[in-house]
Amino acid sequence: MSATITTRQVGDVTVVDAAGKITLGEGSALLRDQVRNLLGAGNRKILINLGDVNYIDSSGIGELVSSFTTVTGQNGQLKLLNLTKRVHDLLQITKLYTVFEIHDDEAKAVRSFS
Amino acid sequence: MPGTLDQMLESNLDSVDSAENLCVDAAKQIGLDEDACMDLGLAVREAMVNAVAHGNKYDAAKQVRFVLETRADSVRIIITDHGSGFDLNRVPDPTEGANLMRGSGRGLLLIQTFVDEFTVKKAVAGGAEVTLVKYAISD
Question: Which DSSP string do the residues of A65-96 spell out, in sequence order?
Answer without folding.
Answer: HHHHHHHHHTT-EEEEE---HHHHHHHHHTT-
